[in-house]
Amino acid sequence: MRVLLLLLLFCLIVTACDEAEEKSPPQEEKKPDIILTPSTFLQLPGWGSDDFSGLVRAFDRSCFAIMKKPPEKQFGVLKQAGTYGNWQDICQKFIAVNDWDKNILRQFFEQNFIPYQISDGKNSVGLFTGYYEASLKGSLIRTKRYNIPLHKRPNDLVMVHLGQFREDLKGIRIAGRVVNGTLKPYEERADIISGNWPHNDEVLLWVDSAVDAFFVQIQGSALVEMENGKIMRIGYAGQNGHPYYAIGRELIKNGALTKENISMQSIRKWLADNPKKADEVMNKNKSYVFFREIKGDGPIGAQGVVLTPMRSLAVDRTLISYGLPFWVDIESPEKGQKNIRKIMVAQDTGGAINGAVRGDFFWGYGDKAERLAGKMKSQGRYWVLLPKND
Q1: Are residues 113 and 48 in the same domain?
Q2: Domain of 106?
C-alpha cells in the first residue's frame, strides 16, 4: 500500500481524522489499467510443451475455494473474469475429467478457455521474481540461542478490506489500531522488534537469527525445526499495514551493492558481514508480518488454499483475481536454461507485487527452491485464460 493513498483512505473510512490527516496530500499518479488482448492457444509461446505435473493439484485447490462462493458474485477484481457461477461450471467439468493425460488436459483448456495477453496499455513484458517456503530453527521458549521473536497476530490489529466498502477499492487493504473510535496506524517494524509496542509478549516462537526472521516475513511461510526435533509449519496471520520496502533498493542507493549483483543471497551476505548496520537497513522496511501455526502439507496463499510448488503465482490483488489460470513465458533464473512456459494459477499476493505485468513465482521448499527464488528477477509475460462464452 502506498503512503499517500493510505492517508486518503483513512479519511474516507474512519469517522474522525487528525489535523494532519485532514490535509489534502498531492495526487498520486494513477496505477496503469490492466489491458486484455484476445489471443489463441497457437499463439502462446511453447504451448504444448507443458507436462502439467502439479497443475491438477493446484487448480483443484482453487476450484475447492471457488465452489464455496455465491454463483452470482463477480469473480474477484477482474471484471472480464465473469461470475463465480461461470467458474463453478468450469470447475465441475474439470473435476469430471477422469484421465489426467497431458494431451487430455491440454484439450480441456483449449475447449473451455480463451487466452488473453495482459499488458498495462504500454508494456506486455514485466518483472517476475521468486519466493519459497523458508527453513528456520526455533524454540517455543526463549533461550540464550533462540532470542529473536516471531510474533502472533495481536488482538487489536484491525485489517480493513476496502472493497467491502467501495467497489472501486476492491483488492486494497489497510491495517491499524482503533484509538478513541479512530483507526490509527500500527507500530512500524522498528518499534515491534525493539519491544516498543503493547504486545511484546505475544510470541509464537523464538528463532536464532534476526536475518532469518526478517526474510521469513518476506517469504510469508516457513518450516521450523524446533529445539525438540519436531517440525512446525508457520504462515502469514496478518501485517501491520505499513508498505513493504525492498531493502535491496537501499543497499544499491548507498553503494553497498549494485543492480548487477543484487539478489537475496547477496543481501543476506551483506547483512551477515555488517551486523552493526543490519538492523538500521532492515528497519527501512516498516512492514511487519505476524505468524500462526499451520497444519497441513504446505503454506497457505492469499486465496486461502495450499500453494503448489512451481504452479502457484502471486499477483497484484488490486488487478488480478485469485484462482485465475495463466500461461506464463518467463526467463529462467538459471543462465542457459529455456524459458519457463507452463500454466500457473493466481493463488497469492505480496507487498512488492504491484502492476498489471508483475508476478512472484512460488518455488516450494528446500535449498534449490531458495537458491532459484533468491536469484530470480526475470523478464516475462503472461496470458490469462478466461472461460469461453458458449
Answers
A1: yes
A2: 43-129+306-387
Evaluate if pTM is beyond 0.85: no
Encode pLDDT of 142-162 as tens digits. Answer: 999 999 999 999 999 999 988
Question: What pLDDT is recorded for position 207?
Answer: 97
Residue 370, pLDDT score? 94
Question: Measured at the alpha carbon of residue 311, what is the angle toward residues 307 and 313, in degrees to the nearest 5?
Answer: 75
- Predicted pLDDT of residue 390: 61
Cβ-count burial 367-383 (b if 16+ within 10 Å, e if not): eebbbbbbbbbbebbbb
Identify residue 261 by its one-letter amino acid code: N
Is 227 inside a domain boundary? no
| 25 shares a domain with 171 | yes
> Which of 163, 181, 201 is the last residue in one of the domains?
201
> Other CB atoms closer than 10 Å to residue 121's CB: what's the count?
10
CA quadruple 318, 321, 326, 332: dihedral positive or negative?
positive
- Model confidence over 345-362: pLDDT tens digits? 999 998 889 999 999 999
User: What pLDDT, in 10s, does the model give residues 273-307?
Assistant: 999 999 999 999 999 999 999 998 899 999 999 99
**Position 333 confidence tier, pLDDT thresholds 50, 70, 90:** very high
- Name the domain count of the chain: 2
- How far from each other are the two terminal CA atoms of the chain, in whole angstroms? 39
What length does the chain have?
390
Neighbours of 338 (CB within 10 A): 10
